[in-house]
Design goal:
CATH class of the largest domain: Alpha Beta
Structural class: alpha/beta
Number of strands: 21
Mean pLDDT: 96
Low-confidence stretches: none
Number of domains: 3
CATH superfamily of the largest domain: Alpha-D-Glucose-1,6-Bisphosphate, subunit A, domain 3
Strand order of the largest sheet: 1-5-4-2-3-6
Largest sheet: 6 strands, mixed
Radius of gyration: 22 Å
CATH architecture of the largest domain: 3-Layer(aba) Sandwich
Length: about 475
């Protein structure tokens, strides 16, 4: 019986040389190729890109061989390329989809296989199910053309995706004003695809960019994984203070997500960053449009929606839910708790580079430091919001764990009254202060996540502790 390839929250990920092998990768690529052919895309172009993980360039080439072997043409990136740049290339090149070889923020042992549609966006859950169903049982059913032969016949061509992407960034953000601002910007590229980008975009002015972790090292020294949360970012936070920087910008392994550190070397959690970005678009740029959020991200967005009179839509976790809703509503912004944010005028895909540039532009337009921007936001909301998340590996049957959570039926959590239970994606207990506790299973790893948000700083630990007990972890 062959290994069963399952697409999680954002594609397929596996352990290199265990389940993530060239043979299984070929099967996954065959499933995607068959899906595109079924959609009438034969003869059209597909973009293939990759990150700086172990063997990623070879896995990308192998995927391209399969796509070409099925009657599709392939634009293969010349080197490691940020996920948002790959996504934009799909639209710019009028391609019918993309394959991205990346495991994003996963541990160094892993690699992944992300697929995108003609909008450069995550494919919806029904589409992913269909791709899974078309993955052949045997590698013998995989059709491929050798790379050299495909390149000779121009079925696979190398290309540079950066110029078109940068041209679009320049339409969305006044880069010259950021260059002239005289900031000291500390960038932690987390050994990934964001390396060199802010230096390239902001060089030639008074602003100074200092990069760390900006070369290829698939073992990710000084961090557990290239995920822009603590403790992975602690080295970057210390470097911010040491260099007297005005802000810390952090991009994850494939640069589709970002993290922010303030001028004091303190992390601004990803829920606050999302609220700040929405506030910036609404208040400073005067934009209006729908907001799309996953249920695991901040209720500050709901409050901003009320204040500015814009609709707020809540989805399950993952851009396979966020992207379709953004396209449906022509949303101004969409995002999730993991630090991924997408914007109108770009593509409906997470973009850690654009999000970071918008944050810098927020600082330029207001003349405020990151701590002052937060105060500005909380003054508008009338409350300060606090967040935490704990990830715990779990064993055993997921269904048994879900029954345990449902049977708990708590009346209070962390001393706050439970007002509602939402089971759209996991188990979200709404609390009387407008906050929430969420218990859900990761779609990409055998991990249970317990998250919370509240306006009571002194109740965060109690809420998380109660959540762990409800989940049967404590």
């Amino acid at each position: 019986m062959s290994y069963k390839i399952k697409f999680g929250t954002d594609g397929w990920r596996g352990v290199i040389a265990d389940d993530y092998t060239f043979e299984n990768l070929g099967r996954a690529a065959q499933g995607f190729a068959s899906y595109l052919i079924e959609q009438g895309k034969e003869g059209q172009w597909v973009v293939v890109g990759y990150d700086k993980r172990f063997h990623s360039e070879n896995f990308a080439a192998a995927s391209a061989e399969v796509l070409a072997g099925n009657g599709l043409n392939v634009y293969l990136t010349e080197g490691p390329t940020p996920t948002p740049t790959i996504a934009y290339a799909v639209v710019n090149k009028k391609a019918c989809g993309a394959v991205n070889i990346t495991a994003s923020h996963n541990p160094p042992t892993d690699n992944g296989f992300k697929v995108r549609d003609e909008n450069g966006s995550a494919i919806d859950p029904e589409g992913l199910k269909r791709i899974e169903a078309l993955i052949p049982e045997s590698a013998e059913e995989v059709r491929r053309i050798e790379l050299d032969d495909a390149m000779r016949d121009k079925k696979i061509v190398y290309f540079d995706a950066s110029e078109a992407y940068i041209s679009n960034l320049q339409k969305l953000v006044d880069l010259q004003k950021i260059k002239d601002a005289g900031f000291t910007v500390l960038v932690d590229a987390m050994w990934g695809n964001g390396a060199g980008w802010f230096t390239r975009l902001l060089e030639g002015g008074k602003t100074k960019v200092i990069e760390i972790h900006n070369v290829r090292n698939p073992s990710y020294p000084e961090m557990k994984r290239p995920e822009p949360i603590r403790p992975n970012i602690d080295v970057g936070l210390k470097a911010t203070v040491k260099n007297n920087a005005d802000v810390l910008l952090i991009t994850d392994g494939d640069a589709d997500r970002c993290g922010i550190g303030d001028e004091n070397g303190e992390f601004i959690d990803q829920l606050r960053v999302y609220a700040l970005l929405a506030f910036y678009l609404l208040e400073v740029r005067g934009e209006r449009g729908d907001i799309v959020k996953t249920l695991s991200t901040t209720t500050m967005l709901n409050k901003l929606g009320e204040i500015y009179g814009v609709p707020v839509h809540e989805t399950g976790v993952g851009f396979k839910y966020v992207a379709p809703k953004m396209l449906e509503t022509d949303a101004m912004i969409g995002g999730e708790e993991s630090g991924g944010y997408a914007f109108r005028g770009n593509v409906a895909e997470r973009d850690g580079i654009l999000a970071s540039l918008y944050f810098l532009d927020f600082m330029v337009r207001t003349g405020k430091k990151p701590t002052e921007l937060l105060k500005m936001l909380f003054d508008k909301l009338g409350n300060e919001y606090f967040y935490d998340r704990v990830d715990t590996p779990f064993e055993g049957e997921r269904k048994a764990r879900e029954k345990l959570i449902l049977s708990a039926n708590p009346k209070t959590i962390g001393g706050l009254k439970v007002t509602e239970l939402v089971t759209v994606d996991g188990f979200q207990f709404k609390l009387e202060d407008g906050g929430w506790l969420l218990i859900r299973f990761s779609g990409t790893e055998p991990i249970m996540r317990v998250y919370c948000e509240t306006t009571h700083k002194d109740k965060v630990k109690a809420i998380i502790d109660d959540g762990m007990k409800i989940a049967g972890i404590k």
